[in-house]
Amino acid sequence: MSPRHLPRLPNKMIFASCSQIQPTNTMNKGKRELPDHLADNVSSKCFVFRHPNLFRRKSVVFSYARGVDKEAVKTKAVSFAVKMNEALGPVPTTSPEGRMTSRNRSGRVCIHPRRTIAKRNGLPYYAWTARWKGCPLKGGISWPCITHTDDDAHVLAALSLDLRTTNRPKILEEYAKIIGTAAYKGRLITRPKLRIEEYWPESTI
What we know:
- The protein is α+β, with helices and mostly antiparallel strands.
- The chain folds into 2 domains: 38-92, no CATH class; 111-202, no CATH class.
- It has 7 helices and 6 strands; from the N terminus they run H-E-E-E-H-E-E-E-H-H-H-H-H.
- It has helices at 11-19, 70-88, 145-148, 150-163, 168-178, 182-186, 201-204; strands spanning 38-41, 46-49, 60-63, 111-117, 124-130, 141-144.
- The strands form 2 sheets. A 3-stranded antiparallel β-sheet has the order 1-2-3, with helices on one face. Strands 4-5-6 form a 3-stranded antiparallel β-sheet.
- Helix 4 (150-163) packs across helix 5.
- The radius of gyration is 26 Å and the shape is elongated.
- The N and C termini lie far apart (71 Å).
- 22% of the residues are buried.
């Protein structure tokens, strides 16, 4: 019998038939078990953490390849992700300058932690780096924590960004004016509450 000659069902019967259809629940299959910004790259055998406020969107990788216990690595990766998500805060809105508006004073836009390994002794050295659109230095201007302390280096990087200059004497001159003032504290108040070493999981976990 062709569709044209099929008997027409009453509306009530049609609704009753549709109500008996059970929808396929696909949400449970995709239920997320990992914290935000953490993913399990099964093909590469690693967990990858990537947050827009961290390392200019660079990834932190936790590998379980070559026979490494996956559950132990997962525990480590989840612990790091939870801590970093809490410290770094929500994903900011976009802007041409970075990930927030140019009025932002949080220390998260265009200011990044940096670590270098010294060739002479193999020890890590940390710094806060400011880099903005049009910055004359390709890698930005860095302020080492070993010289200025963690907080002071961050404030100096924030001043570099505010002034849009790589002129160190000028930045240090402005820095001397705000030591102990609200302007100094304001550049730290919303900074992630982490020691700079904690941005690298192998240093603290």
